[in-house]
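Bench notes, afternoon.
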Amino acid sequence: MSYIQDLGRYIASAPTAFQAVCVQREALLAAGFSELREEEKWNLRLSGSYFVTRNGSALIAFRIPKKIPKAAKIMADHADSPAFRIKNAPEMKVEDAYVKLNVESYGGAIYSTWPDRPLGIAGRVFLKSPEGLRECPVDLGRDLCMIPSLAIHMDRDVNKGHAFEVQKELLPLLTNDGKLSLKDLIAKKQKCAPDDIISTDLYLYNS
């Protein structure tokens, strides 16, 4: 049961690849692994445990045996998953009544599973700081968006199969009452000024 609970906590804390790598990095450091950087010279030792990250979204961990091994054990998995990526400057006001976000499909999602569900926003942001450009993972929280499906009387043939148009039918509504922009929400979460946000790499996720 503890394995299931650990998995549940991991999934909840890692809605995108950037959070997944952060969680894995902390777990490896706690387990005694040493972090390497690709641009530096590596001084590896026998019996050592190491890991390296790339782009904030990929991680490779390895152990060096005490002597030359007869075999190697290799495991691999995806840190990312199919989703909708939020474009830069995505907000589109509709008749001063509500806000839609401009998105694009990432990784071959099954579109029919996304409408009418509460969605969160997470990913990473790039911030201006006295030390230069700073990359930070961010999770704005759950239940921020919804992709509404059409009422049945507006699409009588929906149960016969439907080819979705992402840019027309799968743009999420931002459930924010128009009080704060997406940039304001990010700034509030990161405790920075909106002008400090240089760029974003954000995705919708299923709450």
